[in-house]
Write a structure and sequence with these properties.
single chain, BolA-like_sf, BolA-like protein 3, globular, alpha+beta
């Protein structure tokens, strides 16, 4: 019984992987292009930002990013609220990520 469940799960994964290879990836690709796209989204969300940095720290596959935003919009907000604003700006993109490291600070 357990062996059948494992085999069924494995077959399902194999089909999913083959489908992605055949139809192209369904998730966001990583690398420099993805970093620029995320940086542009953050720039639109925080137009007065002094500094925005995005780095794909997953080895280029787009699974994990490190983000730094220095913006005056964060003035008077707790770190948690600052991070929520960043999460909100990247809401759709985050759905395809494994992890995200966010650092924020108030611009002077």
């Amino acid at each position: 019984m357990i062996r059948r469940l494992i085999q069924k799960s494995w077959q399902s994964r194999s089909i999913s992987i083959l489908s992605q290879l055949w139809n192209g990836p369904q998730v966001t690709a990583g690398g420099v292009e993805a970093e620029r796209r995320l940086q542009n989204l953050l720039q639109r969300a925080f137009p007065a930002a002094k500094d925005i940095q995005v780095a794909d720290i997953s080895g280029g596959c787009g699974a994990m990013y490190e983000i730094f935003v220095e913006a005056p919009e964060f003035k008077g907000l707790s770190v948690v609220k600052q991070h929520r604003l960043v999460n909100e700006a990247l809401r759709e993109e985050i759905k395809e990520m494994h992890g995200l490291r966010i650092s924020t600070t108030v611009a002077k």
